[in-house]
Write a structure and sequence with these properties.
Chain A: InterPro entries: BRF2-like_C, Cyclin-like_sf, TFIIB. The complex is a heterodimer of chains A (about 400) and B (about 160). Chain A is mostly helical and about 400 residues long. Chain A has helices at about 1-15, 20-35, 40, 45-60, 70-75, 80-95, 105-110, 130-145, 155-170, 175, 180-185, 195-210, 230-235, 235-260, 270-280, 285-295, 300-315, 320-325, 335, 360-365, 370-390. Chain B is about 25% helix and about 40% strand. Chain B has a ten-stranded antiparallel β-sheet, covered by helices on one side. The chains are: A mainly alpha (about 400), B alpha+beta (about 160). At the A-B interface, α6, α20 and α21 of A face α2 of B.
Chain lengths: ~400, ~160
């Protein structure tokens, strides 16, 4: 009986999502197979319902129908972690290799949830769904290029992109004043808190690119960058190239400035080449390499020594710098730019063999004295008595 | 860098967890909620889960030898409390190692199987070879988990060159 109800639930989900017949059939097949498996035959009805949703999810993914786990969780009114756990188990049992979801593919389906057309909201706040989706997709692609999307949940990113796209399509004072909270209220969607952070990160990226626009004279800040978003997205490739070049030039200038201040050490050219091979492949290292190459020109001995000292000091600090390479590149994952402070690793005793003698005094420190054991038993008894009196 | 070594050992006798909880320090035991005991020692800094059946699971050591020393200490503590323990079938079950790769790996050319669900977990899971799982993060951090230290360390060295 539960199998039949489960299959009916699968059909209902497919009809709600308006998927095609092929996906519906595949979902039913998977549900049949998974239901019979020992991992799912004796689980609760709730879990079986979640299983139905997961079968629909995996079928959609396999047949290129973009859908997120969040959508299924919403439809089932289930916790996304529970859905995730059931999904992982089901995929393992049925040996399914589902393709990785692409945020830009899901964007169009997600933006349909936002009730922002002229039917639902006043004209000054309304926006055409197609334009909104197109602008949001471009913003998500830019976010993906600048490491904002990797490893993050897609829904807050999409929400942030749609919000910024909506503001930028008609950047009036009224729209720019609208907070994410208010926007979600008028669009009738649930707000996701991480979307606020994504908005900040996206604005930072847009500011970095906005600064490279030649016809913009005023300083580009997160407050005024929304007005420039159309231009930024239209010319983003060129602006990205310019921004990277500007950043490299700035790093080179810093390199040279620090060279002049640091001590000059004499190193042989062969040592320089060895050091260059060993250092990681970073843009700043490439800069120093090019600096060293330029400095190797005859008659420029000071710069040569400067480059050598720079390489040498870079190697010495390579372990520290590798921990935070994100601060030297223009775009890096935010978890690298704002890296957590890792606790200092304690030095391991190197002479441990596993068969050392264990002294009694060492073990005694982990065993209670008889008096301590008595006191502990007494305290426990009193505690349990007071608890039973309370209840 | 090895982060964690998980090992198991059988003590060869049944244990009364109540007695151990009363007579030993650094013990966490909630008999109404769980049927095992957790205890910790300072050197090496590890945690052990002790079951009534006499099985111990020891985690937190930074090397295989440290794990062995720690497990022997736990067994010795139980022995001092009056139980006739033996140290049987000591086995390293799992090792977790981590390294930083830079720049961030964009292409997992030689990983055979991968699973990436950003809605559930920010890392990407790869099965490098059967028995070894790699978890890769956007920051470039890579964590390897497996039960053979030689294989885990070999893969770490290979990845640093890659």
């Amino acid at each position: 009986m539960n199998l039949i109800k489960g299959l009916q639930r699968v059909k209902a989900l497919c009809r709600t999502l308006r998927v095609n017949r092929e996906i519906e059939d595949l979902s039913e097949t998977y549900y049949n197979q998974a239901y019979q498996h020992k991992s799912f035959i004796k689980v609760s009805l709730n879990k079986k319902e979640v299983l139905a949703g997961c079968c629909v999810l995996v079928s959609c993914r396999l047949l290129n129908w973009p859908i997120t786990m969040g959508t299924i969780s919403c439809l089932l009114d289930a916790d996304s972690m529970v859905v995730g756990a059931v999904y992982e188990e089901m995929v393992k049992i049925l040996n399914i290799k589902a393709p990785i979801i692409n945020v830009t593919d899901v964007m169009e389906a997600h933006s349909q949830e936002y009730k922002i057309s002229s039917v639902y909201v006043p004209e000054e706040l309304a926006e055409n769904s197609k334009d909104l989706t197109k602008r949001a997709v471009a913003l998500v692609e830019l976010a993906a290029d600048s490491w904002i999307v990797t490893g993050r949940k897609p829904i807050p990113i999409m929400m942030a992109a749609i919000y910024l796209a909506w503001q930028s399509l008609k950047p009036t004072k009224q729209r720019l004043k609208y907070s994410l909270d208010k926007f979600c209220q008028i669009a009738k969607v649930n707000k996701h808190k991480p979307a606020l952070k994504r908005i900040t990160e996206m604005k930072e990226v847009l500011c970095k690119l906005g600064k490279e626009i030649p016809w913009v004279k005023e300083p580009v800040t997160p407050d005024n960058v929304v007005r420039l978003m159309e231009d930024i997205l239209q010319h983003r490739d060129a602006l990205l190239r310019r921004a990277l070049r500007t950043h490299e030039d700035a790093l080179l200038a810093d390199c040279q400035a620090s060279c002049e201040d640091s001590l000059i050490e004499e190193t042989a050219p062969s040592q320089i080449s060895e050091v260059v091979e060993q250092t990681p492949d970073l843009s700043s290292v490439e800069l120093c390499e090019s600096n060293a190459e330029r400095a190797k020109q005859p008659g420029d001995g000071d710069d040569n020594q400067c480059a050598a000292s720079e390489q040498h000091s870079y190697t010495q600090g390579s372990q520290d710098s590798s921990q935070n390479w994100g601060k030297r590149v223009l775009f890096a994952p935010p978890c690298v730019i704002h890296a957590k402070k890792r606790r200092v690793e304690q030095p391991e005793p190197k002479d441990v063999t596993g068969d050392e003698e264990i002294s009694d005094s060492e073990i005694d420190s982990y065993i209670r004295t008889p008096r301590e054991a008595r006191d502990f038993a007494l305290a426990q008894k009193m505690f349990s008595m007071s608890e039973s009196e309370k209840s | 860098m090895l982060l964690n070594v998980i090992a198991t050992v059988k003590l060869g006798c049944r244990l009364d967890l109540n007695i151990i909880a009363h007579k030993a320090r650094n013990v966490e035991y909630k008999p109404k909620v769980q049927k095992y005991q957790r205890r910790m020692i300072r050197e090496p800094r590890t945690t052990a889960t002790i079951y009534e059946s006499g099985n111990i699971v020891c985690s937190g050591a930074n090397s295989e030898d440290q794990s062995r020393v720690a497990t022997r200490r736990y067994a010795r503590i139980v022995q001092r409390l009056g139980f006739p323990v033996s140290f049987l079938n000591f086995k390293i079950q799992n090792l977790v190692a981590t390294c930083s790769t830079f720049p961030v790996i964009r292409f997992c050319g030689f990983f055979t199987l991968h699973s990436y669900e950003p809605e559930l977990f920010p890392g990407l899971f790869c099965s490098v070879i059967p028995g070894i799982t790699a978890t890769i993060f956007a920051s470039g951090r890579l964590t390897l988990s497996g039960n053979c230290i030689l294989e885990v360390l070999t893969i770490l060295l290979l990845l640093r060159k890659f």
